[in-house]
Amino acid sequence: MAARVIDALQYKLVAVDRGHIEALYEWDRLEPNRQLYTCRPVKALVDVEEYSDSLQQKITRGELIMYVLVSIERRHLPLGRVRVFDFNARNKSAEFGYYLPSHFRGKGLGGIMLTLFLDQVFSFMDINKVYATTSSGNLRSIRLLERLGFSLDGRLREHYWVGTERFDQLNYSILSREWKRGRPETHGTDFGQADVKFLSSGSYTVAQVGSNSPKGDK
Ligand SMILES: CC(C)(COP(=O)(O)OP(=O)(O)OC[C@H]1O[C@@H](n2cnc3c(N)ncnc32)[C@H](O)[C@@H]1OP(=O)(O)O)[C@@H](O)C(=O)NCCC(=O)NCCS
């Protein structure tokens, strides 16, 4: 799998590479709230080799495209991921899902990642519409999609069962022409810009730059 650079700014969205797999696997392994991010049964995690093979096979079969957000300083270290699937060649649509591990949330990286993603799909792929689903309890995700100009297409009632709580599923989409007309500024105060600083120990700090938005875990 070759990584493809699509942005020349501080962050890039690149196609997932073998070198990213271990980090992606660890995100899934350590995520305590996987049931918040899918309405489907949450499967037990397979081992890392099986995870890697399964991902590779789906990509090879053309069922899945996966991008990771990286910093230009450390492109081997993924900060977040976007998965694109359910490609419909007839109406030129596809679904996508997005994820940041908890230590990278609430810093504006989600907006940067999806902005780069929408630039990518609507510039380089023959796609008219992309859509995403989220739980009505996922306020940060809802805010992010609405901020980027997505429209709420519908609501599936009580579609997410999380413990004893039931949330609706919200279906959002954006068309190519809508994105090209209304793309927000990625950098500066309008959208916020995360500043990820890597330390020599191999760990990192993340600071929010230029945003007046409320932050916090949902
Ligand atoms: C959803 C996700 C991609 C958002 O990315 P992020 O970088 O954490 O989001 P941001 O910090 O840019 O916040 C997005 C918006 O939500 C707002 N927000 C944050 N916490 C909020 C809360 N508790 N209530 C309401 N809004 C909130 C932010 O202020 C921001 O709005 P703004 O753009 O007007 O400032 C990320 O949190 C994530 O990966 N979460 C886990 C997986 C997930 O939920 N995937 C999506 C659905 S399955």
Bound molecules: coenzyme A
Lateral strand order in the biggest sheet: 1-2-3-4-5-7-6
CATH architecture: 3-Layer(aba) Sandwich
The geometry reads as globular
Radius of gyration: 17 Å
Estimated structural class = alpha+beta
Number of helices: 5
Task: Tell me the strand percentage band.
Answer: 25-35%
> How many domain modules?
1
CATH topology name, in short, is Aminopeptidase
CATH class placement: Alpha Beta
Helix share bin: 25-40%
CATH level-4 homologous superfamily: Gcn5-related N-acetyltransferase (GNAT)
Number of strands: 9
- Which spans have pLDDT < 50 for at least 5 consecutive residues? 1-8, 187-193, 196-218
Largest sheet: 7 strands, mixed
Mean pLDDT: 84
Q: What pattern of helices and strands is seen along the backbone?
A: EHHEEEHEHEEHEE
What is the CA-CA span between the terminal residues?
34 Å
Salient structural properties:
218 residues, alpha+beta, Aminopeptidase, 7-stranded mixed sheet, two-stranded antiparallel ribbon, 33% strand, binds coenzyme A
Summarize the structure.
The protein has helices spanning 21-30, 48-60, 109-124, 139-147, 176-182; strands at residues 11-15, 64-71, 80-88, 93-99, 129-135, 151-162, 165-175, 193-198, 204-209.
Give an overview in words.
By secondary structure, the chain is an alpha+beta fold. It has a single domain (11-209), classed as Aminopeptidase. The protein is 25% helix and 33% strand. The protein contains 5 helices and 9 strands, in the order βααβββαβαββαββ. The chain has helices at residues 21-30, 48-60, 109-124, 139-147, 176-182, and strands at residues 11-15, 64-71, 80-88, 93-99, 129-135, 151-162, 165-175, 193-198, 204-209. It has a 7-stranded mixed beta sheet with strand order 1-2-3-4-5-7-6. A two-stranded antiparallel ribbon has the order 8-9. The longest helix is centred in the middle third of the chain and has 16 residues, at 109-124. The relative contact order is 0.15. The model is unreliable at 1-8, 187-193 and 196-218 (pLDDT under 50). Bound molecules: coenzyme A (COA). Residues 37, 97-100, 105-111, 134, 138-141, 143-144, 147, 211, 213-216, 218 line the site of coenzyme A (COA). Residues 37, 97-100, 105-111, 134, 138-141, 143-144, 147, 211, 213-216, 218 line the site of coenzyme A.
